[in-house]
Predict the 3D structure of the following.
Amino acid sequence: MSTLIQGISQTGQSRFLTRFRSNPFAIPSVLMILVFVVIAVGTALLSSFGHQWPCDPNLTNLEQKLLPPSSLHWLGTDNLGRDVLSRMLHGAYISLTVGVVAVSVSLGIGVLVGAVSGYFGGMTDQILMRTVDALLCFPTFFLILTVVAILGPSLLNIVIIIGLVSWTGTARLVRAEFLTLRETEYVKGARVLGQKSWKIIMHHILPNAAAPILVTAILGIPDAILSEAGLSFLGFGVQPPQATWGNIIADGKTYLLYAWWLNLFPGLAILIASLSFYLAGDALREAAEGRD
Amino acid sequence: MESFIIRRLGLSLVLLFIISIISFFIVTLTPGSPYPWGELNPKISAEVKANFRKKFHLDRPLPEQYALTMRDLFTGNLRSIKDDRPVMSRIMERLPATLALNVTSILISLSFGTLIGVAAARYAGSWQEVTGSFITFIFIALPGFWISYLLATVLVTNFGVPILGTQSYGIDFPNATAEWLDRLWHLLVPATVLALGGIAAQSRYLRATMIGTMKEDYIRTARAKGLQEDVVLFKHALRNSIRPIISGIGMLLPALISGAVIVENIFAYPGMGRLGYEAVLERDYPTLVALNFVVAALVLLGNLISDILSAAVDPRVRLE
Amino acid sequence: MRSIRFFLYGIPALLVVILIAAFVNATFLSVSKKNEMSIGTLGEPSTLNPIQQADSAASEVAGMMFNGLLKYSRDLEIIGDLATDWTLSQESTFRFQNHEEALKSRDFLNTLLSSSPALPVTGLEVQEDRLIVQLRQAGLHDSEQIFKSLWDFNYNPLPFPALAKGEKPSPFLAEPILRFHLRKNVRWHDGAPFTAADVAFTYHAIMDDRVASPRRSDFELVSSLTVPSPYEVVVRYRKPFSPALASWMQSILPAHLLEKVDPAKWPEIYNRHPIGTGPFKFDSWKTNERIRLVKNPDYFLGSPWLDSIVFRVLPDPLTLQLAFQTKQVDFWGVQPWAVKGLENDPRFELFSAPGNMYNYIGWNLRRPMFQDLRVRQALAQAVNVPQMIKYIIYGRGVQSNGIYTPQVWFYDPKVKPLSYDPKASKSLLDQAGWKPGPDGIRVKDGKRLSFTLLANNGNEVRRDISTLVQDDLKQVGIEVKVEVYEWAVLLKRFVNKGEFDAIVLGWGLGYDFDQYAIWDSSQTHPEELNFIGYSNPKVDRLLSDLRQEYNRPEIIRMAGELQQTIYDDQPYLFLFVPEGTSVMWKGAYRIRRPGRNPGEWIDTPVTMTKAGWSCDMEWFYRPEYPPQVKGSKP
């Protein structure tokens, strides 16, 4: 949050917060995100200390396979008798990690390319932007599928691939911001004073472009979560027995007519998580753009 | 104007070249066995496989393969590994179905998106608008495969209606209307699922720009002149906001074809998304390269046309 | 202004109206069915040319349009199809120093034959320095006996140079001869008559490099194919090769359409709209959607009852089930877990038959830890296969006891599968020197007993197997890491190179006793099918003997020995043979097929046979469209 607040002039800070709060979805969605983060981090912490709560997500028990939700298994069991709730709690960690890390990757590349392109302009800009144009012409999903096939489906690879194919939007946005900010008086002044380019970028331009960048980042998280779920669904996802929301649905898809709980709950989890991010991101955007 | 078109055309060709190289190398680096038969078949000897690789130039070094692939692509001799037919005819036979699905889906998302967006701008802040926004955000956040499965299951188990493919089979249709409605039904279900995200995006975009325009001076002037609120809304604000949408349709294509992969698979719809997905699984390199190329070419063409059109319509757009 | 409003409200309203109308329309559709059968397939055929295809979807469709010379009966016996009958004989050739020696040995054999009539010799002939013996049956046994008698009486035949690189010179030539007599009333779908020239053309096309036929290895040992009359085909083989008979189930192509065309043009002119001789004719193909066949009223066994068959391509198993529930697909190959829910539903009929494939885990025998037989036995005893059968396939299957599945005639039921016994497993591991380490995982010479188990994604059964194996082996102190890859990647990176620890796979090998490609020690190179690196000289000998044996009881004996020997070696962990189950809406179809006597028709419900439910598709009918002939109960 600190970079964001830096990015907005000091006087605008409280106005920004007021505007953010006035959005009816802002507070609930942020709270919902916090709940997911607490669940994900909590489950991960507990299991790193050897406590699996409510039970081991990978413990198979064939005698209890495909049981509907009950007081013992709140969200039922899957086709190998594993507890769906436990798997979903562990899946929360994976899904959020995928979202955050993939966005970091895409943000890193996007900001770098956009900044270089927008600040220096000329031939560099031309080459970089034509590459972006070329990538925008690809059907992204085929690109992801082929690259997964090349690199192999591990969590790390999937995160990187989703990041690698989704930076073009950020790059364009950052470039546009830089094009305008480059012409502002204080940047011109800094240049006249002979400051180094990267210093100007880091100290003068980037902080001022922080708000829109943050908004794209937050809106990028649910995109990444949905991409991972889609990949898992097609069987290109994270390795089993590791649970993710996407592959719980994928594993349960053939049982849909007999075991609705395998499909409904993880689907709702994906829906609610990405909805929260979209709503929070949108509220943030509106607040940053100065709308009421 | 002419020099503008020529320059844009040149640029597009350069882009196409870059795209062809990227797509060729990414595609051929994919590990796998490009044979049309199941690999673990005791009846198929190493000799047959070698013969097959030779036929599709798979025994040559990569740069040479690229050159041969491109040559074949332009002479129309590029053949699919799966069924040995020219890839262009494989792609073209999907075109009607793909166009039908994507055009319908764009139509649904634009028409409903506009309606919702306008209403949202008009009644911004009211509880109805807040509820509406919430629903549109649900549309974006829905995992496509999940909603497709739920919809398909509900339609089949609760209503017993056929939904797969482009029409029902094994039925004596009482008349032509019934047959056409049946086809429309098979088109509308996947198109609606595909359009959900678009409806949301369109309505959000329109709401934001329209609220922006409403604050412009000329709108205030129009209001001050005593024009009805609706007239202001439709005549000025909407018209002003709609142009960028029309010019952006071209860029929707790759996203739609990507998004259609899962929907087409679930609804067994014979479109290009499924062709591409199956080509990835079957390691049908020629088909994949050609498909990427065709989609890219279509996008570039769409962009070019929309640029020229908006330049022709709006003198403020500079041709640079 | 008005136009804007019109578009703004009008288009969405119109779309909603159309959607509602289409939905209402769809709810009324299932009423009047055509006389058409609809079959769902997950994959789409690559081509309908029967000599260029090897996928099951393609052979299912092509099977309705084409005939081979032979086919399997409902009981999996080989019977004539385009051939009315066939004979198998053999020419054995012995070589001598000169013409005189050959003549002398012929006279000797003549006297020998009169004293021992057991030898199935039908003729003797001398050509220059060679003595040619005509035999009534094929195989090496009789020729070896003749050779031995000649040698015993000092008529010493000279050896023949080796036929192929790596083979030994042979003491005599044994060339089996297959002679087919063909049906005379058969016509292609375009009206042209079917003759022996079509058979000859099909053989030459398969051997043509430009065709790149995956069927080629079946015919590599053919030395000549001749057509003495338009309805007779004679095939001569270089050496005894008993699996060859079944290879003549190969569908026959029409010479008159393809002979003069470059095979490179076949995909356009033939492969997607073929002409065959079968009960159904090709009608149309909408890619990724459906293939429609219509009845062939001139079929040589009589016109089918159905007007048409539609094969629908439905790539997702769940939607295939949905299509079945809306009666858009008439038959559905049910997964075992769904059987449970359907079995007691009075609306459906289920057919089950023992499957023709088995699941296994292959141990890479190049890895030191798997080279110890005790370790492999311990692995087999640590995995609870009965429990897998109970829960993964809901009891619809049996434990596998080796390389053959129960319904083939050369299967040996006496091979006892190893029982689930974790205690025995632990003590075997102890004996082999693998002692439990600090973390519970066994250790030997500082190495942990830990390996990676591979499976392919998209196959629920194999994925579940890998998870359960992981759990079971943990109990005896073995660590298993499971990795799941896309099929193409699995083959390219691991299987083809022989670089993996263990892998979950299945073999569905048809009804062929010949498994040379999978078990022979010469087949362990990259891209070959003995990818686990198995080698046992006894197995090698049995495999090659089996391929040259034509005598049925002998085949059964040797196949049994082969099955036992391989099972004892435990190169695979043989898991289970799942049943195949199909489901149909109750009473949707019946069968009325010709009986033994002319004019007699037998009416039965659809049943599962050894060869599956779908044989004799030409005699399936819908009760709404009863056949014109009267049927009687069997």
Chain A has twelve helices and no strands. Chain A touches chain B at residues 24-25, 130-131, 133-143, 145-147, 149-150, 222, 226, 229-230, 233-234, 246, 249, 253, 256-257, 263, 267, 270-272, 274-275, 278-279, 282, 286, 291 (CB under 8 Å). Chain A has one domain: 2-55+74-288.
